[in-house]
Amino acid sequence: MAYHHGDLRRVVLDTAQRVIAESGPAALNLRDLARRAGVSHAAPAYHFGDKAGLLTAIAVEGYELLADALAEAPGDLRELGVRYVRFALDHPAHFEIMFRPDLYHRDAAEVIAARDRAGRRLRAAVRTARPGKPDLARLAAWSLAHGFTMLWRTGNLGDADPAELFRAVAGQTFTT
């Protein structure tokens, strides 16, 4: 077994993300994960408690990464959507877990805080672009970006550039 003198928590998280990206969350087993990571079988439980705790940490990290990606985008709804799509394609394990709250501790304070941080950016852009009914506009924007992303991830949209294709599709719905 390899000795990790660095950040065991990070090693376990990174290994879990690889397993999820390759085989989905159902394939995640803490004992097998420890073996793959080259750490003691107790390391994942020590850092995360259980599988749901590990997946909670991945969800929190995912929402934080998404919030950072959205913060770098201009306020244009199409560009926020492009950032959402790129995030999902660049971080498939995070994306897979974030929208499966049945797998993690959805009421954990750190999940709520990270999810709210990501949502604030979208809410601000929607208030600017669609001041009349911002809740419906936010749901429409999220539905468009998420649906597009799911279609792309499952190979249903061909091999065009996903950012350009999303801009074109979103241009049919949102003008700003």
Question: Could you describe the 3D structure shown?
Answer:
This protein has 176 residues and is mostly helical. The chain contains nine helices and no strands. The chain has helices spanning 8-23, 30-37, 43-48, 51-71, 77-90, 92-98, 109-129, 134-153, 162-171. Helix 1 crosses helix 6, helix 4 (51-71) runs parallel beside helix 7 (109-129) and helix 5 runs parallel beside helix 8. The longest helix is centred in the middle third of the chain and has 21 residues, at 51-71. The radius of gyration is 18 Å and the shape is elongated. The mean pLDDT is 89.
Q: In summary, what is this structure?
A:
The protein has 176 residues and is mainly α. The chain has helices at 8-23, 30-37, 43-48, 51-71, 77-90, 92-98, 109-129, 134-153, 162-171.
Low-confidence spans: pLDDT under 50, at least 5 residues?
A: none
The arrangement of helices and strands along the chain is: HHHHHHHHH
Helix content: 55-70%
Helix-strand makeup class: mainly alpha
Main sheet makeup: none
Strand content: under 5%
N- to C-terminal separation? 54 Å
Number of helices: 9
Average pLDDT, rounded to a whole number, is: 89
Number of strands: 0
Gross geometry: elongated
Q: Round the Cα radius of gyration to an integer and report it.
A: 18 Å
